[in-house]
Amino acid sequence: MTNPCIIAVAITGSVPTKAANPAVPITIAEQVESTQEAFEAGATIAHCHVRNDDETPSSDPEKFARLKEGLEKHCPGMIIQFSTGGRSGAGKARGGMLPLRPDMASLSVGSNNFPTRVYENPPDLVDWLASEMREYDVMPEIEAFDLSHIIQAARMAEDGRLKHPLYVQFVMGVKNAMIADERIFDFYIETLRRFAPDALWCAAGIGPNQSVVNEWAISRGGHTRTGLEDNVRLDRNTLAPSNAALVKRTVALCEKYGRPVATASQARAILKLRPVA
Questions:
Q1: Dihedrals φ, ψ of 28, to 5°?
Q2: How much is the pLDDT for 1?
Q3: Does pLDDT of 21 surpass 70?
Q4: Contact call for residues 102 and 95 (beta carbons, < 8 A)
Q5: How far apart are CA 171 and CA 46, in angstroms?
Q6: Full-prediction pTM beyond 0.85?
Q7: Is residue 5 within 8 Å of residue 214, measured between CB atoms?
Q8: Domains in the chain, please, with CATH?
């Protein structure tokens, strides 16, 4: 395969703490530094959350603005993707940063179970977030935690609530949600091709599933996500020293399968995102 692989790095999330791994970046300055290292290692999408000083998740648009400014300065051309996930806020607060016009934002189109709670994505909130992304020219990354989420995203694209082509991320290995299973993974790809033939896709594995899901995605011509949000270890016994280390492991998988790693400009072209001025 010669098609470039886009590598996303989920730099901090809202769950991993410095107690779990001291390399997890919390402050804006730490996140910018960690992302720059990951960018230089080969990542071209930064999946972003923000945190308060006590490590709790935040939906503060001012924090997102400062993070965006820092990434644009130190990672020129990198695709900035804000999270609208439910851990950082409730209701419309989850989309309060979208007027900042990041390149992309995550969008979950259905609910599912998480390790200790229900991840609620009611239809009215999903429709509002999608409309805000259209309003501010933000490309959604559909986070598919379940097969039904793929089908719902295709329906939303069909009726105009989402733009074509879709960009869908298969998320596997979340406790109480979809397991990381290779046959299910292949069925996800088949289902997406059937319901949204022009869609692009990527995949993320949680915890010890990260590297294996990375490999499944790369070997099948898709794109993939790594980073300390999803997994704090390089292997069973070794903490990851940085987001960059996880990106380098993913780059090595691209080399194994003959996939060039997409540059920032190539990633923007593949996703049909606006070029950097």
A1: -60, -45
A2: 59
A3: yes
A4: no
A5: 16
A6: yes
A7: no
A8: 7-270 (3.20.20.70)
